[in-house]
Design brief:
The complex is a heterodimer. Chain A has one domain. Chain A is about 85% helix and about 0% strand. Chain A is built from eight helices and no strands. The longest helix of chain A has about 35 residues. Chain A starts with a helix and ends with a helix. The relative contact order of chain A is 0.15. Chain B folds into two domains: about 130 residues, P-loop containing nucleotide triphosphate hydrolases (Rossmann fold, 3-Layer(aba) Sandwich); about 70 residues. A five-stranded parallel β-sheet of chain B has the order 6-7-8-3-9, sandwiched between helices. In chain B, strands 2-1-4-5 form a four-stranded antiparallel β-sheet. In chain B, a hairpin with a 2-residue loop joins strand 4 and strand 5. In chain B, helix 5 packs across helix 6.
């Protein structure tokens, strides 16, 4: 079972490496959106410091949503997805493997890139550390929740818009606690409570989202 | 043994077929034929469990496949209109990943051999997207050589294949039937079987 899991992760990583351009669009989108705000607002450091957590997190949300389409659409188009549904492996396990591979090439680079972008907002080192930590815990939850939406809108016309309507409301808790963690740390309240909530959301998504996604894929395959 | 009882299927608001009954013994092949839109593909997808039937049930060795789940998918190999191979992966990688998903690990040497046997020698380690239609089909068909599944469900397996490949596929199907396997396939080109017992099922009302 573990072997199958690792093979699927490997397969999706190989596919991402061979289609690098798809991977980088989400990352560049994130970098550009976050960089636009300081340019638009000007060098008002106090304002920038205040909006930084919110801006970075909203950009992360949008970038994660943008990359969702890649998760199942290609596999659906070439028929490998229906083959996966017909294997003796539990579909939720395959979904989890695909989501993890997806996160490794979209969510993880985003979290690693964030401190560099945070510098434009004059964030302190301490705040940057919390920002990375919150993104590292929050973005996998985004990928997991987003997978449900991606699976539900497979093969639907105008699926891209529909997926944002479905998924963005579900992203709200992650946004609140993610951005909240950084704000709390900046204001000296301590980020622990927000981080715990974020962790709880991740665990919940880890358990439930693959099952929901698997069920959605079966419906979409009909 | 595969049996179908009282099966009916609806796509959209159109009833494609109803009260369909048949059974298939080990070593038998079923030709499903009928005009375009008569529900051949829907029937095949229902047989492997991709589509839930509106009414009736599909049984494998007497048990409803919905309660068998993974026990059943282990025994079934489905080849649809889509080849189910990734264009960015090579033939070898495609074959090995689909084997792992089917529940067995295929050694690299066996994968090379299977692709060579299916007539892809020299093209095994090219990305599948640079192959021709027929060669892509052959990559998909290579699964037949390594898979242990008992029931093969194939939707138009002969399309895009050249004469040599059709003959090869015929003999592969024949060998599978001789081993006691079951085959359900749709085709528009009548392809005579080399061995085994063939049965027919006609869908639709037109001739």
């Amino acid at each position: 079972m573990l072997k199958v899991f690792l093979w699927v992760v490997r397969r999706d990583l190989i596919l991402s490496i061979r289609r690098r351009s798809d991977v980088f669009t989400a990352l560049f989108f994130f970098v550009i959106v976050v960089s636009l705000f300081p340019l638009g607002i000007g060098p008002a450091l106090d304002t920038l410091r205040q909006i930084a957590p919110g801006v970075v997190w909203v950009a992360a949300l949008l970038a994660s949503m943008l990359s969702l389409e890649r998760l199942f659409a290609a596999d659906h188009a070439d028929g490998t997805l229906e083959q996966m549904l017909l294997t003796p492996q539990p579909v939720a396990l395959l979904v989890l493997a695909k989501v993890i591979a997806h996160w490794l090439v979209t969510g993880l680079p985003l979290a690693l890139m964030a401190p560099l972008l945070g510098l434009q907002y004059d964030l302190s080192w301490q705040a940057l550390e919390v920002l990375i930590a919150s993104l590292l815990v929050g973005t996998p939850a985004l990928s997991l929740i987003g997978a449900i939406g991606a699976a539900l809108t497979l093969g639907v016309r105008g699926g891209g818009v529909l997926v944002s309507l479905l998924v963005l409301p579900l992203y709200i808790p992650v946004l609140i606690f993610g951005a909240g963690a950084v704000e709390a740390s900046v204001s000296g309240l301590g980020e622990q409570s927000h981080m715990s909530m974020l962790g709880a959301i991740l665990v919940l998504a880890l358990v439930l989202a693959p099952l929901a996604t698997a069920a959605a894929l079966r419906v979409s395959a009909e | 043994m595969l049996s179908v009882e009282n099966l009916s299927c609806v796509r959209g608001d159109r009833r494609l077929f109803k009260e369909l009954n048949f059974s298939l013994e080990n070593g038998e092949l079923l030709y499903v034929h009928g005009h375009n839109g008569s529900g051949k593909t829907t029937l095949l997808r229902t047989l492997c469990g991709l589509i839930l039937p509106e009414e009736g049930e599909v049984r494998w060795n007497g048990v409803n496949v919905r309660s068998l789940r993974e026990e059943y998918t282990k025994d079934v190999l489905y080849l649809g209109h889509k080849n189910g191979i990734k264009g960015d992966l090579t033939g070898l990688e495609n074959l090995r990943i689909s084997s792992i998903l089917d529940g067995f690990e295929l050694a690299e040497s066996s994968a090379w051999k299977a692709l060579e046997d299916i007539g892809l020698d020299g093209h095994e380690d090219l990305p599948s997207k640079v192959l021709s239609q027929g060669q892509k089909r052959r990559v998909a068909l290579a699964r037949l050589l390594v898979n242990q599944a008992k029931l093969w469900v194939m939707d138009e397996p002969f399309t895009a294949l050249d004469k040599g490949a059709v003959a090869l596929l015929q003999s592969v199907i024949g060998a599978h039937l001789d081993k006691g396997g079951l085959v359900v396939l749709t085709t528009h080109q009548e392809v005579p079987l080399t061995s085994g017992r063939a049965r027919r099922l006609k869908l639709g009302w037109r001739d």
